[in-house]
Amino acid sequence: MPQILATEIKIILNSGLSKTIPVLLFLPEAIVSKDRNICSVGERFNMAFKIVRTESRLVRRILASHGFSEVHSNSNDFNLMWTGSHLKPYVLRSLQDYQKVNHFPRSYELTRKDRLYKNIQRMQQTHGFKNFHIIPQTFVLPSENQEFRNCFAKDKGPWIIKPVASSRGRGIYLVSNTPTNIKNTFMHLTNYSLNKKSSDYVSCDDPEVEDYGNKWSMSAVLRYLKQEGKDTTLLMKQVEDLVIKAVLSAELQIAAACKMFVPHKTNCFELYGFDVLIDSNLKPWLLEVNLSPSLSCDAPLDLKIKASMIADMFSLVGECMFKQKGNSPFGIPVFILPSRMSPFEGSVTLKLFLQDHSVCKTGFAAAPWGG
Ligand SMILES: Nc1ncnc2c1ncn2[C@@H]1O[C@H](COP(=O)(O)OP(=O)(O)O)[C@@H](O)[C@H]1O
Ligand SMILES: [Mg+2]
């Protein structure tokens, strides 16, 4: 391993129990910086990455700006693999202990809407309903169709129907027995991928302005709520609680899959996007957990937030600066991105697809910011 230079002391930290394992501290400003110490550190330590089955320009930019070289997707000579899909068991089994990949096996236990609901429902049964009352009332169709119909007879909605394994608002619609406007998807679904197509969508070109238009930073939302006299410390504690409980509900299955397929305990990490809706009582509700949350940067604010988040994630994951056996610095790290806070208002006509959908109770109060 090359000697650590005096100029690198600030960006290579000693980690691990004995504080002898050098890991790289990633800096978001590296993507614009001309500082040779940052750019050359990956080169000097021969660090490499590969990107497989995904287009991740920001991940590539952060790694390349720290001197990591990109290798062909067939190469085994990498420290980090960033992939758009899950790895086959034989690929996982072949990982060396310094190598890392951005998915756990079986993380669909968290990211498929039906699996998430079933896992949380199990926790409600074993640990008390009120302790895991973190998701809106849900039914999985077609198996719970009768229960849903009984409930719908009493509670006329609106209800939101979602495919169990889709994303970006695709395939979602609302049902209600009350006369409300359920056809207006811009009003009901706060997905950026949908709302950016609305003629009313207001974007912002200044990365320093975090509270203008339809996309705000989370800090700006919290500042706004605080000004309105809301207890944002309590709110964020509850959001953290919700995230931890969601992860716990899928932990056993994912840990079992890791035991079966992953040779070293630090091989896998994962970035999840949590969709959290805050109701008018300031109670957070988990809507879903996103696999591979969007890292695209349409607005300058996206770049500012996502570059910092990815740099933090790679620092936390702990990129070992040498390729030898037995040097893994941490336990299994999971890095979590609270992806957004979604407003919702409103709702309407009964039309049901009964295959592989989940139905959730909607009807939370509208929030005053865009999603
Ligand atoms: N229970 C709910 N109540 C109110 N709005 C909801 C509810 N579930 C989803 N939504 C709205 O629909 C959007 C899409 O739902 P989501 O579960 O995140 O699916 P997708 O994978 O398509 O993003 C959310 O961002 C939110 O705006
Ligand atoms: Mg979503």
TrEMBL record:
- A molecular-function term among this protein's GO annotations: ATP binding
The GO cellular component terms are: ciliary basal body
The answer to keyword Ribosomal protein applying to this record is no
Entry-linked PROSITE patterns: TTL
Cited InterPro entries: TTL/TTLL_fam
The record's section on Pfam families has: TTL (PF03133)
* Protein family according to the UniProt entry: Belongs to the tubulin--tyrosine ligase family.
**Name the UniProt record assigns to this protein:** Tubulin--tyrosine ligase-like protein 5
Q: Which organism is it from?
A: Nothobranchius furzeri (Turquoise killifish)
